[in-house]
Design goal:
globular; alpha+beta; Ubiquitin-like (UB roll); two-stranded antiparallel ribbon; Alpha-Beta Plaits; 204 residues; five-stranded mixed beta sheet; 7 strands; binds iron/sulfur cluster
């Protein structure tokens, strides 16, 4: 694979064809914040916290670093006043859903986000999809998915699958950027409402 040279924050960075800006930055030790990214999962580009500025032929535009592929001579900025403003706004919106998320609070401190700016709509899930995608792409179990749409969208465990697969796994819990307890709660609820015959052997 040929090497591509791009510039990130004024530094020359070498990358392989097919890499994303995020991967190139990470390989050079340059930190770009992410919430919905996981190295074992296909890029998702949902949370937009990894937005960066790219300059192509004199034009600057905003792209999601986790999905945008590297290009020869691409000029990338990972911090600017505009980017900080965007990240601050994204964090303030997400904090209305998950005001106690340690990961969001850490980022809020870095970007000066006010966790009380927007009215609370605490649903805890910020729709990053990490749990859903990890279960499907890595575990191939499809035990958790999204239900409903828009503001009513939430995660839900499928009781028949969860009762069989989740007790010995639970690998999605620590992935959740808001609270592993939320995932645990939803799982417990799903298992409680499932039929007694779906309880794992050890629980009978
Ligand atoms: S429950 Fe957590 S990991 Fe799953 S989509 Fe919501 S925020 Fe992401």
């Amino acid at each position: 694979m040929s090497e591509i040279i791009l510039q990130i924050d004024g530094r020359e960075v070498g990358a392989k064809e097919g890499m994303t800006i995020l991967e190139a930055a990470q390989s050079a030790g340059i930190v770009i914040p992410t919430l919905c990214h996981h190295e074992k999962l296909e890029p998702y580009g949902a949370c937009r916290i990894c937005s960066v500025e790219v300059e192509v032929h004199g034009w600057t535009r905003l792209v999601a670093a986790c999905v945008y592929p590297v290009e020869q001579d691409l000029v990338v900025r990972t911090r600017s006043e505009k980017l900080d403003r965007i990240r601050k706004m994204i964090l303030e919106l997400l904090l209305a859903h998950a005001p106690d998320s340690p990961q969001l609070l850490d980022l809020a401190q870095e970007y000066g986000a006010d966790k009380d700016r927007f009215e609370k709509e605490a649903s805890f899930c910020i729709h990053c999809g990490l749990c859903v995608r990890y279960c499907a792409e890595v575990k191939k179990k499809y035990a958790v998915g999204f239900v409903d749409r828009g503001t009513r969208k939430e995660i839900s465990f499928i009781p028949e699958i969860a009762a069989k697969e989740c007790w010995d796994c639970k690998e999605c819990f620590p992935l959740c950027p808001t609270s592993a307890l939320q995932a645990a709660y939803v799982l417990t609820e799903a298992l409680t409402s499932s039929s007694p015959s779906s309880e794992p052997e050890s629980e009978k």
